[in-house]
Each structure stands twice: as C-alpha cells, then as structure tokens.
User: Fold this.
Amino acid sequence: MLRISFDKSLIPLNELVCHLFKGGFIYKKSMEKKWFVVCTRPQQELKVASQLSAMGITNYCPTINLIKQYSDRKKKVIKPLLSSYVMVELEQNERNKVFACSRIVRYLFFLGKPAVIPANQINLMQNHLSGVYDDFKVTTLTVGDSHMITQGLFSGVLGKVVETNNTKVKLELASLGMRITLRKQEA
Assistant:
C-alpha cells in the first residue's frame, strides 16, 4: 500500500509538495495558471471559445471585424485572427479538461512541451486589438529630427520625423522599412 503525506510547513502558496514514502522522492507540482494554445477543428474557433467559457475555463480567441461584399449586400463578419487556435488559461494539472469540448484536436507543442504564452503577451494582444496603447508624451519635434520610441510595440526603434502638425507626427522607421503615424493626445 502506498502512503502519501503532506508536509504543510513546506507548502508555498503556489506549489504542492508530496512525500512518497515507498519511492523516496519529492514530487513538486506547480499550481499557477499558464496560457496554453489549443488547436481546433477548422473554422470552429468561436464555437470552442463559447463552449470553454460555458465550462468555466478562461480563454481568449482574438477576432477581427470584416465587411464581406456579396453580390447583393455587404455584411459585417467576425473572424478569428488566428485560424484553428484558441488560448486557454489553466493549471498544468487541469490541461485535460479542455478535451470535454469535442471540437478541440490537441495542444500546440514547442520543443516537445506544450507551448506556453506569457500573460503579458496575451494582454498586449488584447490591448492592441482593442486599440489601447500606452500613453506617451511628445516634445516639440520638427521635420528631420530623430526620435526614439520608448514605449509600446515599437519600443527602442529610432525614427526620423517626416511630417508633423497639431494632431499627429509621422515617423519613418528605416530599420523596419515603414512609416507610422502617432496621434497626439490632449493633456
């Protein structure tokens, strides 16, 4: 018979430590939630997200709004940004719960382990798709000045001011081969 004992003096808030007397080793299991990626059947992402929500599993399926032109009408359509992928936030030991949803095929793996996405990248994607960006301040810039972007998606990129007016500044980012427009916000 296998006897399991819990030593409560060794339990931090996010770990469970079990002493197995017959095997003589310590088994640690992380109890923190991580973002995993599940692969779905084709064109089932939104249905999977709603089923996971109904099951009480935190998930994120990034979507975009498109206007489809048909021969007789235009229609607004919500499409998933990442086809066949939905992100779920679970503890490691709860990963099998998602397979209660029949439209999920498997987890996405990277280097032989389930792919884990850092929570800050999920937040960044959510903010970017909803149009929320970190606030930034622009001092007086003139055409031809160099400006280093300090926050946001292009943090650390040096740009040259191409155009400026009361409401916006256009920067040319030579290292990326593109131009971006920064809108000034009222203080």
In short: The first helix runs from residue 45 to 54. The longest strand covers residues 33-40. The CA atoms of residues 5 and 19 lie 6 Å apart. The chain has three domains: 1-31, 33-130, 146-183.
